Amino acid sequence: MNPQISDEELMAGVQAGRRDAFDQIYARWSPTVFRFLMRRTGARQNAEEALSETFLRLYRSRAAYDPARPFRPWLYTLASRSGVDAVRAERHGFHLALDDLHPGVRERVLARDAEAAEGQAARPDQRAELLDLMLAALRELGAKDRQIFLLSLEGFNASEIAEVLGMNPAAVRKRLSRLRADLARSLNVH
Q1: pLDDT of res. 126
Q2: Sign of the CA dihedral 96, 98, 103, 106?
């Protein structure tokens, strides 16, 4: 896999029928898309099926992709739709593990956990409690809010989330602000 070739250039190769370009896109993006789909669908089998569906949709709709536009939001639009279809099919919840969080978010959670311990030895059950609280709070969200929050954990900014979900960027920023505040309140994090 050549990291110097942009995703947009690789997609142009996919559009031209180059199998190696598709293989490189898959190798580059399947791990992160899979993590997103695991949290979206809640079950490995569903996430694997949604991942396959995502890349099948990518291949089938390759002619519709505009290489002048960013690739990542387009890919996550396909993944989001595949995840929604998987959730509808199975009506499962979702899974969130500390190790699956965006590295910056994970470090903030661990730092807050350490501050809360105030010098006490960290207990393994503290992390589990925090994750249980986060899961409970996320389960309370509507489907659209959960998608917005999970995409933000993947490192998407408000404009990219808006593009993936077909929303106004200002509305996404407002919802993200409210979601973060609500989550912080429910976790007693200030």
Answers
A1: 54
A2: positive
> In sequence order, which residues have a C-beta less than 8 Å from that of residue 186 and are 6 or more positions away?
133, 136, 137, 140
Domain ranges for the chain, please list them: 1-95, 96-190
Yes or no: say if 67 and 5 are a contact pair by the CB < 8 Å rule: no
3-state SS string for 50-77: HHHHHHHHHHHCHHHCCCCCCHHHHHHH
Q: Which pLDDT band holds residue 12 (cuts at 50, 70, 90)?
A: very high
Assign 3-state DSSP to the chain and report helix, strand, coil percentages, each to 5. Answer: 75, 0, 25
Q: Assess contact for 159 and 176: CB atoms under 8 A.
A: no
Burial class (CB in 10 A: 0-12, 13-18, 19+), 182: middle
| Token couple for 146 | 């959960």
Q: Closest by alpha carbon to 172, among 189, 188, 156?
A: 156
**CATH annotation of 1-95:** 1.10.1740.10
pLDDT of 154 reads 77
Q: What are 25-39's pLDDT values in tens digits?
A: 999 999 999 999 988
- Around Cβ 169, how many Cβ atoms within 10 Å? 14
Q: What is the CATH number of domain 96-190?
A: 1.10.10.10
